[in-house]
TrEMBL record, chain A:
Segments forming domain SUF system FeS cluster assembly SufBD N-terminal: 30-172
Protein name: Fe-S cluster assembly protein SufD
Superkingdom field: Bacteria
GO process terms (BP): iron-sulfur cluster assembly
Xref: InterPro entries: Fe-S_cluster_assembly_SufBD, SUF_FeS_clus_asmbl_SufBD_core, SUF_FeS_clus_asmbl_SufBD_sf, SUF_FeS_clus_asmbl_SufD, SufBD_N
Domain SUF system FeS cluster assembly SufBD core per the UniProt entry, residue ranges: 180-408
NCBIfam families with a match to the protein in the record: sufD
Source species of the chain: Ancylobacter rudongensis
Record family assignment: Belongs to the iron-sulfur cluster assembly SufBD family.
UniProtKB/TrEMBL annotation, chain B:
Family (UniProt): Belongs to the iron-sulfur cluster assembly SufBD family.
Name this protein carries in UniProt: Fe-S cluster assembly protein SufB
Species this protein is from: Ancylobacter rudongensis
Chain ranges of the SUF system FeS cluster assembly SufBD N-terminal domain: 150-211
UniProt record, GO biological process: iron-sulfur cluster assembly
InterPro entries in UniProt: Fe-S_cluster_assembly_SufBD, SUF_FeS_clus_asmbl_SufB, SUF_FeS_clus_asmbl_SufBD_core, SUF_FeS_clus_asmbl_SufBD_sf, SufBD_N
Domain SUF system FeS cluster assembly SufBD core: 219-461
Domain of life, per lineage: Bacteria
Amino acid sequence: MNADIRPIRTQAEQAILASLATVPEGGDRLADLRRAAARSFEENGLPHRRVEEWKYTDLRSLMREAVPVAGAAAVAEADARACLLRGVEARRIVIANGAVVPELSDLADLEEGLSLTTFAAAMAAGDEVLSRIGGIVPSRYDASLALNTALARDGVVITVTPGAAIARPVHVAHVFAGGTAAAMYDRSLVVVGAGASFTYAESFEGADGLAYQANSATEFVVGDGAHLDVVRLQEEGASAFHLSTLLFDVGRDSKVHAFTFGLGAAVARTTLYATLSGEDSHVGFNGATLLKGRQHADSTLFLDHQVPGCESRELFKTVLDDSARGVFQGKIVVRQAAQKTDGRMMSRALVLGDEAEMDNKPELEIFADDVQCGHGATCGAIDDDLLFYLRARGIPKKEAQSLLVQAFVGEAVETVEHDGLREALVERAEAWLAARA
Amino acid sequence: MPAVQETVDQVRSLDVDQYKYGFFTEIETEKAPKGLSEDTVRFISAKKNEPEWMLEWRLEAFRRWLTMREPDWARVSYPPIDYQDLYYYSAPKRPSELSIDDIDPEILATYEKLGIPLRERDALLGIASGGTKVAVDAVFDSVSVATTFKEELSKAGVIFMPISEAVREYPELVKKYLGSVVPVTDNYFATLNSAVFSDGSFVYVPKGVRCPMELSTYFRINERNTGQFERTLIIADEGAYVSYLEGCTAPMRDENQLHAAVVELVALDDAEIKYSTVQNWYPGDKDGKGGIFNFVTKRGDCRGDRSKISWTQVETGSAITWKYPSCILRGDNSQGEFYSIAISNGRQQVDSGTKMIHLGKNTSSRIISKGIAAGYSDNTYRGLVTAHRKATGARNFTNCDSLLIGDKCGAHTVPYIESKNSSAQFEHEATTSKISDDQLFYCRQRGLDPEEATALIVNGFVKDVLQQLPMEFAVEAQKLIAVSLEGSVG
């Protein structure tokens, strides 16, 4: 954008700037990154509707006030709060209020080929792997990521050695525990070596009624021929503010699947960045969002095809009840060198509530000619014919609607490969529908 | 893959200097002093013998314009335009509106060369040989030089005349509708147009009248350093129907020329307007030198219930195209349509699309856009479909396909789909691909040379849109597509 004179800083911006003042001076690369991120926030502030990437999620007006950065959580409370995906057989790590809680985390007896430590510990030890942080740089200023870079102090750092097949997923449970609203930031890094396979699950939750703010970012570095599955479930408290960023650097011949499931928070924004830098890789990003009341959820994707022969598939489903607002933005960029790219993106929204709103913006930016790219977007109410079919068979209206919504969401949820995780997500969707009826 | 290799070779040896309308007509002209100021606005207004209210309207627009900034969100890049280095008014010296015989023969010859008959008897001869009757308003730089079939149209009650005349003869109609669809403050280029527009067509079709013939305007930029700012206003009263065609060309020059037009359509209850454009302004040479900057604001207002507005455009010319013909679907059960073929070759940059704004109940819209990028060009589709809270039962179907010829060009799709009503049903699909080797092989096997084969495939690709054009235009457009892609295909 050209020289827009920045309006007066909002209360939230001022509060955030105050916490940015604590970003320490230091000598290493990470410290430099942090300061650069803090500076870019000072310059650009919170994005507003004139900033194209945030057109439908105007943080400047949505984020009325910034709450102070959260202190350490009480272990017992964090344990009680972290309920999601508990039944799934996985190695469980708990991050409460932005810091790993060792008492609740399964950090010992690691499988061969898996190394797992906390971000804070890796930093203290000057771990070499942290040089991968900040490897993927969004082409435009991203306020959510900048704040995370500047303020996150902990998270997990996972390395899977080349060729290792880790069958048991690692589940990182993010939770907010505390009596007053606060902000929490965490940053994680997952490096999957060449030919390795790994499943990573994340969950997000916190108390209803507290306007806490969660900001999470995870970077994935996927080696040649590796296979990575990411499953995330976001069920933050009803008044919470959730900002998260997932960044993927995808190597040659690799396979990356990510599924994001969003049910919670008053305002949620999830941004996925993927750089396809190795030939013949496959990326599948899918997601489902179920919203009610006055919830606002935004899923934004950037796929950058830099090399030839890659395939990307995206399927996002949004169900909107009451006066909820759903946003989907997806951008596929195909660089001149990326011949033989095959990209398909689909966003479908089912509108149940009379006051609900859906905004779709699927984009294609293509500079190579020998490609197959497409996107689709649909938006509408439940098909009356389908409803009639079911009702004609004696199924009550509410139940028929539930069945159709389940089928609608099911198409996306089915893409989750891990049985336990998929079943857990289906169960959450059913709970959402049951609460509605 | 020989076919691909040939395509690449052909593109390398690309020569886009095939613009056949690039000649310049030597005539004496009268111009406003160079530059833009309140005096320029007053000069134009005085030249047109405009009433006081019109001058005030213009001046207000000009003052507003001074406070505005040039938009930069489109995917086009061009050197900054020096608005003080342009002529805002240029007219052939001889009085021309008395009768066809008073028109400078040079101008008549120009239009003949362009294939536009201005003499009604020529057009009538066309009928004898099987053609259709089309009434033409010919705009040469800043003035309308001739309007044909005026009498026959007035018998049907249709008003078809240069807008500068309409301002004097039908001030009430003009006052009521001018700026009611594209407000003076709408955007940078529309505001500039409001201040300095020189001519254009005015059409009023009264209640229940089906306009007896196609109406057409032919725009020609001739003079050097001149901007063309035409303004078209079409009103279809209750139950009326009108089909309107627009064509444009300009000489080949090294410099960039500015074209900033505004078109406003108003359809009242049960009325229908069909607006077709074949835009073939000079696109610049193969290195991107010269060419027209085409910044156009076109908008139709389906003000009445059951009204319909249909835009069809074939965009092959201009160095820069910035154009989004839109429909405001205000009346209940109203319909909007947008059919577009945008072809870019050489260094052309196209950023075009549409807006369908659903306000009324049971409104429906349909968008079919075909973009073809060749050479070093960039071709962007940018569109908005929106349903407001009260637009119950709104329906939209959008299909935008892009075809890339060569690996130095870009095709982009930026749709915005916003639904604020649960009963609105929107569908959008977009694809980008290249001409498949299989298709080419199939055609070549049957003895077509690569260029013919590509033209055939491209014509198949754009068929859905071509079908929407009036008959004579469709044939013309089909040829134009082949010419535009010449030298780019293998």
